[in-house]
Amino acid sequence: MTDVNLPKVEDLDVDDLASLPRGYRYELHDGNLVVMTPSTYWHKLMAQRLLLMLHAAGFRWVLQDTGIRGDRPRDCRIPDLGVLKKLPADMNDSNLPASAFQLIIEVVSEKSPNGEYRQKAQWYAERGIVEYWIVDRTPDRAPEDAVVHLHHLTLGAGEPAYTRQRSVLLTELEAEFRAKGEA
What we know:
Elements: E1 25-29, E2 32-36, H1 41-56, E3 62-64, E4 67-69, E5 76-77, E6 81-84, E7 95-97, E8 101-107, H2 119-126, E9 131-136, E10 147-156, E11 159-169, H3 170-182
Parallel strand pairs: 4-7, 8-9
Antiparallel strand pairs: 1-2, 3-6, 4-5, 6-8, 9-10, 10-11
């Protein structure tokens, strides 16, 4: 294994993440550096299918590993997929404000859960992202399918939170999107 030389973690901010060694995904959680391992092939395949489905449905800017800036310089998240409202003016940016996104999708990493159901959901809700989907394994762990939990932002008791609208198999969601496209 090669040595990885990082700047002092307490000095890192969101803009510094682009200069870190390639081959890893990095997030800053309230100033704490989080290094994420590469995803499984099931994870990659589900993200690809969702990207292609949304793009075919007319969502122009569906992107992988989109950086979302938090409220502070030392806070950002990188969801698996993000649907932008429009392309950024500066195409050299790695991280955009949450207001740039209309939908965020997280695929659950089975061997390294990253808080998709609670921490990430709360973080995205607090930043006003209207839709949030969580993609997880089916109960029988089918290698070719997933359960997609579709959530919509609500203001319950004054606090932003997501309300699950429904859960559907990815194969069924793809069929729904195809049918809408053919209509």
